[in-house]
Amino acid sequence: MQDQSDTAPEAEIDDRPLWTSLRRGFRGRCPHCGRGRLLHSYLKVQDRCATCGEVYRHHRADDGPAYLTILFVGHLIAPLLLVVFEIYRPDPMVLFSIFAVGCLALSLYLLPRLKGAVVAFQWARRMHGFENAT
Questions:
Q1: Which of 30, 53, 124, 134 is disulfide-compatible with 36, CB 3.0–4.6 A?
Q2: Which residues of the chain register pLDDT less than 70?
Q3: Where are the transmembrane segments (predicted)?
């Protein structure tokens, strides 16, 4: 017969669904309730959710969102750059201009969304101070 204390950590982790939290964080919403805003400016995380009161000030996103942005943008733009160059052979300055604007736009779009997803991941997995939060 299994002791209840053995299953308690599993129950704690399961009460915070990872994929739901990641979707909410990517949309810039509270990973707990899905209604409050996670970010109060471009990259600044709220101290707490205005709707449910979840505390975020102890998150540790650090360089994770920037690294993920570089990873995603690089893996999307590099093959596209090669295909466009091989098929159309545009003037190098035209190619540079189009892809520089594309990289910048995609990076600016993804960075706050990935920061929200990283904070939501930490919340869902009870990392960096989120283990004691409700």
A1: 30
A2: 1-14, 133-134
A3: 66-88, 94-111
